[in-house]
Design a protein that fits this description.
The chain has 16 helices and 7 strands. It is of the alpha/beta class. Strand 4 and strand 5 form a beta hairpin.
Length: 504
């Protein structure tokens, strides 16, 4: 039948007897042939087994990847899709909305409105008597908060030109600082353009359309690019001052994320504190980029990060993000059913809670030693439950498969917890070191939003402009300043960020 494999004919008893009678040489030839055939079949079977093992490993890897989500891994919430992910936070039992005693932000009437419109009563609503000439005895007040029609106003600067009666030469008035062209855009208009593009994250085309719709003035994409370029140049010095302020800070958060520029993969690096933010794009993710950034090679404080190996090339103190550890431990607990992972989560949260309740500046030495012993015991339990992977199989040529032995997710996590115990427990030793790297992740989150809204960067210069401007905007926001006013100061050549003067 079609599709069926043909099998060789089986030797009959008579054929075997005939070969036997033919003499020893015929029997030896038959046995050698059978041995060779068996050897080939054994080799084919080993190759098939290896291929099946590879397929099984890939299937297991796919299954593990499908089981990961934003709750139990490093994956962002946007990757969860429409799957229902169990919530990490426990219900508080409170009703939605503002709680009792919370000060709301409801509109309040103002004492001096910009305009007052009086609505007259013509007739009595009860009997119809005319009230046209009666004086009101009181007023019921209602206020509407509204935006005025937005319009660009033009200021013409006229500089006097006079001729001297004594020498006959002409003298011209000096124009205000910043008024350098016959026709130009003002500082606030340029600040608004930079705000919409770099803080509102609008693409150039939409920013241009918004200016035409709101203000009745079209700004071309080329003009917006030039305004961004001017802002970048003006912010060169203040960005260096931000960097120096970060270098002098006791605790700094670091993070990095992928960034596509001109269709190629690059990396966006961020270093930030509660008051300062510094962004930088680079073609690499590791030490080469960090050296180029110029912060970690000189930094002497505590660098908080997610454990990327390149950070440990620098001699500063390190603190690992335990929010990442909690998610990974959740995955090991739920998918692997490993008890130590649950206990490690409880341990980390216990130390965190104890620190928040502690009124002193640090734990007593006795408490620290007890916590260290518990931590190491849990790591030992995890290693006992996750022994090293077996040696790679020997191939048909008698050689072992190349490459390091691949560890499981639990094995990789345990290796990190064991090797970087001090960095994992940095928040326990030093109360100024946070439990997690949420600040670094917040600093970098909006940069990912920018790519979702505006797309990738067309040039490296554009990415540098965005990062430099965004460093300034993020720093301004952290220090409680008005972003539009701060950007206006950039174009008005005012003193930038006086809060940074003590870092200079």
């Amino acid at each position: 039948m079609g599709g069926e494999r043909e099998t060789p004919d089986k030797l009959s008893r008579e054929q075997i007897v005939t070969l036997y009678k033919a003499g020893p040489e015929a029997v030896v030839s038959l046995v050698e042939y059978l041995q060779d055939t068996i050897g080939v079949l054994q080799n084919n079977l080993e190759i098939l087994q290896q291929n099946l093992e590879t397929v099984h490993q890939r299937l297991r890897a796919v299954e593990q990847q499908l089981k990961k989500n934003s709750r139990n891994s490093h994956k962002p919430p946007s990757s969860d899709g429409f799957r229902k992910i169990p919530k990490v936070r426990k219900p508080s039992g409170k009703k939605p909305g503002g709680q009792k005693g919370h000060e709301g932000t409801t509109l309040q009437m103002v004492a001096t409105p910009d305009r007052v419109r009086v609505h007259a009563v013509e007739r009595c609503r009860h009997c119809g008597q005319s009230l046209k000439h009666r004086q009101p005895i009181d007023y019921e007040r209602r206020q509407v908060f509204e935006l005025p029609r937005m319009k660009v106003y033009v200021t013409e600067h006229q500089g006097e030109i006079k001729r001297c009666a004594r020498c006959g030469k002409r003298s011209a008035a000096v124009f205000p600082e910043g008024v350098t062209h016959q026709v130009q855009y003002g500082a606030r208009l340029r600040a608004t353009a930079v705000y919409l593009k770099n803080y509102g994250l609008l693409p150039y085309a939409r920013t241009s359309q918004l200016f035409e719709d709101l203000f009745g003035i079209p700004l071309s994409a080329g003009t917006l690019v030039n305004i961004d370029r001017e802002a970048r140049q003006r912010l060169a010095e203040v960005n260096e001052r931000i960097k120096e302020g970060i270098v002098d800070s006791p605790v700094v958060h670091f993070d990095e994320t992928g960034l596509r520029i001109d269709g190629k993969m690059h990396w966006l690096h961020v270093a930030g504190t509660d008051a300062l933010t510094y962004y930088m794009p680079h073609g690499k993710r590791g030490s080469q980029a960090m050296d180029s950034m110029g912060i970690l090679p000189r930094y002497q404080g505590t660098a908080v990060h997610d454990g990327w190996s390149s950070y440990f090339n620098y001699g500063c103190e390190h603190g690992l993000c335990n929010a990442h550890h909690l998610r990974e431990l959740t995955y090991v607990e739920e998918q692997g059913g490993q008890r130590w992972a649950k206990q490690m989560k409880e341990f980390l949260l216990e130390v965190k809670g104890r620190r928040e309740e502690c009124t002193a500046k640090r734990f007593p030495r006795k408490t620290i030693r007890a916590y260290e012993q518990r931590y190491r015991k849990l790591v030992e339990m995890g290693m006992a439950a996750n022994p090293p992977p077996p040696e790679p199989p020997v191939g048909p040529n008698g050689k072992k498969k190349r490459g390091p032995k691949k560890k499981s997710d639990a094995g990789n996590l345990l290796a990190r917890l064991h090797k970087h115990e001090k960095a994992t427990l940095a928040f326990m030793y030093d109360f100024t070191v946070p439990f997690h790297n949420n600040l670094g992740e917040r600093d970098i989150r909006m940069m990912k939003v920018q790519q979702k809204i505006s797309g990738t960067f067309r040039s490296f210069e554009g990415a540098v402009s965005f990062c430099r401007i965004r460093s300034y905007i993020s720093t301004v926001r952290k220090q409680g300043m008005n972003v539009i006013s701060a950007l206006q100061d950039v174009f008005a050549a005012h003193y930038l960020l006086p809060q940074l003067s003590w870092y200079s």
